[in-house]
Specification:
Length: 357
């Protein structure tokens, strides 16, 4: 068959996976590797050319796996392995129609993403963006121009809403849009802050899990862990975490109408996909004070977000460049999992993490 060159399966790797992980692939005598040679997202033209006759491909979330690519690969293709937990860049229907297996990297990044979600909540609430900017640049603008050299400690300087409860303010409601592994790991991290309620909305097709929720509320000693409507979650939350999958079903779940329902002191954190949040609406919400602040790991249109987009300029918006899983440990584990998924599928054994198609 065309995909077996020199008795080996051709495998395309869209990004070098580094010295710890590449040997897993290189040492497999069954594989004939073609690796994108540059340290940037692989060129589409290169991928379309090299995928021809491949049995497998390891992609990143920057590589669109659509019918065009799958048809170029041809009937030799068995597996698409993405080094990410999100897979909205993979056309699952097209993959299923061609009998392909799709691998992804859940679990191994859950803790890293939950860690960063908490960091963003704190940064956004505590004026992390303005605070670091005034020190680094000597000035920052929020309502007025603040000069570092003119600033001295002030009773209410740089104040923001506190994440942890206080004696005078004993209730904290945390909301989640999407309540999967990462949301639940984020909840676990917030328990020591004294939060009291957890509200979440999730995929309408997944039924409420009362037993699990009762168990979580008992375990964490919370007054409530409850599934609610998106509107109710927006209305009630002091911090709203957006941790649901991307794709058409969740596009602009956070829009003007939802932001208008939120508390003026509330924080929104997005560590899922930029497409869930309407950037123009969020910029307006921050500018007009409908909410307090935002912490974003992902932004619509990234990495090509215009530097002068109102959201990027909004002082109460802390944006980091899609780094929620970016720890040395986690990225190595994700790359390992992506390699293992590919190898398993090629050898015809069970993949460590396969997407249900
Ligand atoms: C993913 O895995 O989907 C993240 O966005 C990157 O870690």
């Amino acid at each position: 068959a065309s995909h077996i060159r020199n008795n080996r399966y051709k495998v395309v790797v869209c990004r070098n996976l580094g010295p710890d992980v590449m040997p897993l692939l290189e040492e497999r005598s069954e594989l004939d590797l073609v690796v994108w040679p540059e340290d940037r997202a692989c060129d589409r033209a290169w991928l379309l050319e090299n995928i021809q006759g491949a049995a497998g491909v390891i992609v990143m979330l920057t590589d669109k796996v659509n019918p065009e690519l799958l048809d170029k690969a041809g009937p030799s293709l068995r597996v698409v392995s993405t080094m990410s937990v999100g897979y909205e860049h993979v056309d699952l229907k097209a993959a299923a129609q061609r009998g392909l297996k799709v691998g992804y990297t859940p679990d191994v990044l859950t803790d890293a993403v939950a860690d960063l979600s908490v960091m963003l909540a704190l940064m956004a609430g505590r004026n992390g963006g303005i605070g670091t900017s005034v020190v680094q640049n000597g000035h920052a603008t929020y309502r007025f121009v603040l000069k570092w050299q003119n600033y001295s400690w002030a009773p209410f300087g740089f104040c923001g809403p506190q994440l942890s409860t206080t004696a005078a303010s004993p209730t904290r409601k945390i909301g989640f849009l999407g309540f999967g592994r990462i949301a639940q790991a984020t909840l676990a991290r917030l328990v020591p802050f004294g939060i009291t309620h957890c509200l979440y909305s999730s995929n309408p097709s997944s039924p409420p899990n009362h037993a699990r929720d009762a168990e979580l509320s008992r375990k964490y000693n919370l007054q409530a862990v409850e599934k609610a409507s998106v509107d109710e979650v927006a209305r009630e939350s002091d911090v709203l975490f957006v941790l649901a999958p991307g794709g058409a079903d969740t596009y602009h779940l956070v829009n003007e109408a939802l932001l208008k329902k939120m508390k003026k002191t509330s924080i929104i954190v997005n560590a899922s996909r930029g497409t869930l949040v309407d950037s123009d609406a969020l910029a307006k919400a921050l500018k007009e004070g409908w909410i307090w602040g935002a912490g974003l790991d992902v932004v619509e249109g990234e990495p090509h977000v215009p530097i002068d987009h109102p959201l990027v300029k909004e002082p109460r918006c802390v944006i980091v460049p899609h780094i929620a899983s970016a720890t040395l440990e986690t990225r190595r584990d994700m790359a390992t999992r992506a390699a293992q998924n590919l190898i398993a599928a090629i050898l015809g054994v069970q993949m460590p993490a396969q997407v249900d198609l």
